[in-house]
Amino acid sequence: MAKWVRNLTKGLKAIEDLELLKLLRSEISFELSSNPFQGAETGSLGEFVVDYDSPRSKDVVFRRKLDSGEEVAVSAQLGPPNYDNDLVFQRNAFAKVCVKKPSFSSILQFDCQVYQVDDKSSEFSIDGAYYLRSSMSLIPSVYKGPFFSELDSKLQDALKEYLISKGIGTSLTNFILHYLHKKEQQQYVNWLKKSEDFLTKN
Description:
By secondary structure, the protein is an alpha+beta fold. It has helices spanning 2-33, 153-165, 170-201, and strands at residues 49-53, 60-65, 71-81, 91-100, 107-116, 122-132. The protein has a domain at 49-186: Roll (Mitochondrial Matrix Protein, Chain A), CATH 3.10.280. It has three helices and six strands, in the order H-E-E-E-E-E-E-H-H. Strands 1-2-3-4-5-6 form a six-stranded antiparallel beta sheet. Helix 1 packs antiparallel against helix 3.
C-alpha cells in the first residue's frame, strides 16, 4: 500500500512538473517574441560609455570624460512600478550623477529621478545636490546639506541646466529607461530558462 501511494505521489509530481515546464516554455516564448517597449524612443548614450553592467546586478554605470578633463559618472537602476500612468516604461529610474573636476578630490553629486513623459520623450528631476569633499564623503551618515526643494528656485533651475550641459539630456534619459527595462526583461528570461533547465534535468 505504501509503495503504491509513493508511486502515485511521484506520478502526480511528474504531472505537476510537466505542466510547470509547459508554462515556463510558453512564458519564455512569449517574452522572446514580444516587444513591450515598441514605439518608445531608445535614445542614445552620446559621448557616455557603459562602465559597469553585470548580468546579476540591477544597476548600471555610464561614464563620460569631457575635453576639459571633467569626469561624469551616472549610476542608475529601476525604481518600483508605477501603474498610475499608461506609459511604455512603467518604472522610473533612480540615478546618481557625479561630476569630478581634474586634479580635485571633491565631487558634485546629484540624486535624480528619470521618468517617461510620453512615448517620445523622458525627463529627469533632481531630488538632491551635494558637494562632497572626497569620495569618502559618500558615507550615508554624513550630513550633505539642505533638501534640494528648499533651495532657491533659480538655483534649482541653474543646477539642472548644469547637468544638461554635462550631457544629461533627453537622449540620455530615453536611453537609460530603455536600457534598464530591457536589462530587467533579459534577467527575467534568464531566470525562466534556468528554471526550465532545472526541471528538464530533474
